[in-house]
Amino acid sequence: MVLALVAALAVGVVGLTLRPEASVAGEGRWAGPAGTWEQVFADEFDGDVLDRSVWQPDRGGDKPALPFNWTIEGAWFDPSNVTVADGRLTLAVEREPRSVGEGDYAYSTGMVQTLPGDPVEPPVYVEARIRVPSSDGCWPAFWLHPLDRWPPEIDIAEFLEVGSEPRPSFNYIDPAEDRTGPEMYGDPDVDYREDFHTYGVLWDGERAVPYLDGVAYEALAATEDMTDVPMTIILNLSVRGGYEPEPGESMDVAWVRVWEPSSRT
Question: Which architecture characterizes domain 2-264 according to CATH?
Answer without folding.
Answer: Sandwich (2.60)
